[in-house]
């Protein structure tokens, strides 16, 4: 996320020091989506036990 704000000219003007509200909001949005996706994926795997391969 920080690289996007550092390299994209239109975003660089919004958060030149990467501590301004647009940068913080973008980072928080990405974090919340990542956590939500992790929760959804983990719920999908409930009920499956460890897979052991015995030959």
Outline the structure in words.
The chain is mainly alpha-helical. 62% of the residues lie in helices and 0% in strands. The protein has helices at 2-7, 9-12, 21-44. The chain is elongated. The termini are far apart.
- What structural category arises from helix and sheet content? mainly alpha
Major beta sheet summary? none
What is the residue-averaged pLDDT? 78
Our Rg estimate from Cα atoms comes to: 19 Å
Low-confidence stretches: none
Strand content: under 5%
Fraction of residues in helices?
A: 55-70%
> How many E strands?
0
Number of helices: 3
Compose a concise summary of this entry.
With 55 residues, the protein is mainly α.
Structural key phrases:
55 residues; mainly alpha; 3 helices; 62% helix
Secondary-structure blueprint:
Layout: H1 2-7, H2 9-12, H3 21-44
């Amino acid at each position: 996320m920080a690289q996007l704000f550092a390299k994209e000219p239109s975003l660089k003007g919004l958060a030149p020091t990467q501590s301004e509200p647009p940068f913080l909001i973008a980072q928080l949005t990405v974090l919340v989506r990542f956590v939500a996706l992790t929760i959804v994926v983990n719920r999908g795997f409930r009920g499956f036990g460890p897979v052991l391969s015995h030959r």
